[in-house]
Amino acid sequence: MAERLGITITKHIMETQRKHFPDATGDFSGLLTELSIAGKVISRAVNKAGLVDVLGKTGDVNVQGEEVQKLDDFADKVIFQKMDHTGYLCAMASEEVDELIPIPDKHPQGGRYTLAFDPLDGSSNIDVNVNIGTIFSIHRRVTPETQKGALADFLQPGRTQVGAGYIIYGSSTMMVYAAGDGVHGFTLDPSIGEFLLSHPDITMPRRSTYYSVNEGNRHKWDPRVQRMVDHFKSPVSAGGAGYGLRYIGSLVADFHRNLLKGGVFMYPADADSGKGKLRLLYEAAPLAYIAEQAGGGAIAEAEDILDIKPTELHQRVPLYIGCKEDVETCREFLTGKR
Question: By residue range, what is the domain housing residue 94?
Answer without folding.
Answer: 2-199
